[in-house]
Structures are given as structure tokens and as C-alpha cells.
Amino acid sequence: ASAKKLAASSAVDEHYPKSPPKYIGIGSGSTVVHVVDSIAALDPSLTASTKFIPTGFQSKQLLLRHKLQILEIDLLPPGESISVAFDGADEVDSQLNCIKGGGACQFQEKLVAVQADKFIVVADFRKISKTLGTPTTWPSGIPVEVVPSSYPYVTAKLETMGATKVVLRLGGTAKAGPCVTDNGNFVLDAVFPTLAEGEDVVQDLAEAIKGIVGVVEHGLFYGGSKGWKGRPEMGYFGMQD
Ligand code: DER
Asked: Under a CB-based contact definition with an 8 Å cutoff, are residues 208 and 199 in contact?
């Protein structure tokens, strides 16, 4: 937790705006807990007038616990953008391509990220991987959120696209049957043997997955010049080994 905590506090020190922002995005997962702790510890003049936009139930509860003002993403006024969205990741390569979705919130996270001027991914050294999606570093592959009735069809399509393993994410001991996202959908975890470094490969795969009927969103967030919003400002904080 200390690596996460240190990465989170340095990300907030570096990227939380120096004058009070109107909107800040808050992602999901355990590292983001430390991000919100750091934000809550800032001078109140920097947070009191800010509306924080959650990316799911856990993110919302986190903000409520710190008594920070919440705004649902669909209430962001037209033409407004989020100054900075802070989030975690499950894997990051050297070009800031990420696999996200370990918490099954990747749709809301991407919806907030694409409306942010800056997207800061906070990930400790354990998330750095040379090649995204290799089964050794990421046992369950790329999380793909799908409309429940489409999961058999999407599974087959992912396999024809080269996925060597596609698993319907189950609720585990907490729930009989599949994990259901905040949006009422299922998650397929698709292992693609090797996503060579480089945004073209990642981008091509991301676009191919998104093109399958039934796919709502996937956990490939690619940065670099051709990033999913063509913005290179994906920051990355991690502790070197
Ligand atoms: O689902 C996600 O992408 C989350 O950001 C999450 O998986 C990040 O992982 P963490 O809990 O190790 O921060």
C-alpha cells in the first residue's frame, strides 16, 4: 500500500490544479482510494467548490466518505470539461497503453476520461508490463463489457480475432452466476497472447473489439499520439523497481 500511497500523493501534488477546479474525475480501485485521501487533505479552498465525478458505486462511496461534492457524469453541463480525471490501472506499458477494468468499471471510467482535459493513471511498479495482456502478467486478459444476451456471440468473435481464452467473469463466492456491472452488463475477460508494444497494435485491437455487436466498452486505454482521444496527456506515476 505504501507504493500505491506514494504514487497517489505524488500524482495529486503534481496534477491536482493549483487553482480551484470546477470538475475532477475520480476512478475506481484501491490506488484511487489513496488519491482521494490526498485530495481530501489539500487546502479546502482547492476542493470546496469542486464537483467530483465518480466512475461507479465504489468511487461514489469513496467521495461520500470524504464529504466531497458529487456530480454524476450525465449532469456535466454541455461544453464543460473535467480538469483532471485520476484513475488506476491493472497494467501499463512503456507507451502508457493501459489495461483497465479489473474492477469492471471501465465503461464509466472511459466515459469520464474522454471528457477530461487530462487523464492521470496512478499505478505502482507492479502494474508496469513490457507487453500488455500477456497471460503471465495479466492472468485474465482484456476486460470487455457486453450486453448480457450477446456474450456467447461476442465470445466467439473474440476467439476468431485471436483471443486464446475468453472467460465470462463470475461473481465468485459473493454471487452465484456472472459479475454484473453498474450498468447491468456482463464482463468477458479475453486473453490476447501478446499485444506488442506500440499504439498501432493496441489501437487496432481496441477498435476491432469495439466493433463487435454487443460490446459496450473494453479495458484497453491507449495513450500516445493516437490515443483514444488523440491526446498524449496520459500521465503515469509509478515507483520504479
Ligand atoms: O478497474 C480498473 O481499471 C481500476 O482502476 C483498478 O483495476 C485499478 O487497480 P488497483 O485497485 O490496483 O488500483
From this structure: no
Q: What residue owns the CA closest to ligand 1's atom 6?
A: 29
Distances (CA, A) of 205 to 54, 163, 190, 231: 28, 11, 12, 19
C-alpha cell belonging to residue 233? 496527456
> Tell me, what amino acid is at 125?
F
In this prediction, the answer to ipTM > 0.95 reads yes
Q: What is the pLDDT of residues 7-65, one digit of tens each?
A: 899 999 999 999 999 999 999 999 999 999 999 999 999 999 999 999 999 999 999 99
Of 4, 32, 169, 236, the one to substitute when testing ligand 1's pocket (max ligand atoms within 8 A of C-beta) is: 32
Cβ atoms of 54 and 60 closer than 8 Å: yes
Question: Edge-to-edge strands of the sheet including 82-87?
Answer: 51-54, 23-26, 82-87, 116-122, 234-237
Cell of residue 116, nine digits: 477530461
Neighbour count for residue 52 (Cβ, 10 Å): 24
H or E stretch at 160: helix 151-160
Q: Catalytic site residues?
A: 109
| 121 CA to centre of ligand 1 in angstroms | 10
**Ligand 1 centroid to residue 44 C-alpha, Å:** 27
Residues touching ligand 1 (Cβ under 6 Å) are 27-31, 87-90, 100-103, 105-106
Q: Considering only CA atoms, which residue is closest to atom 4 of ligand 1?
A: 29
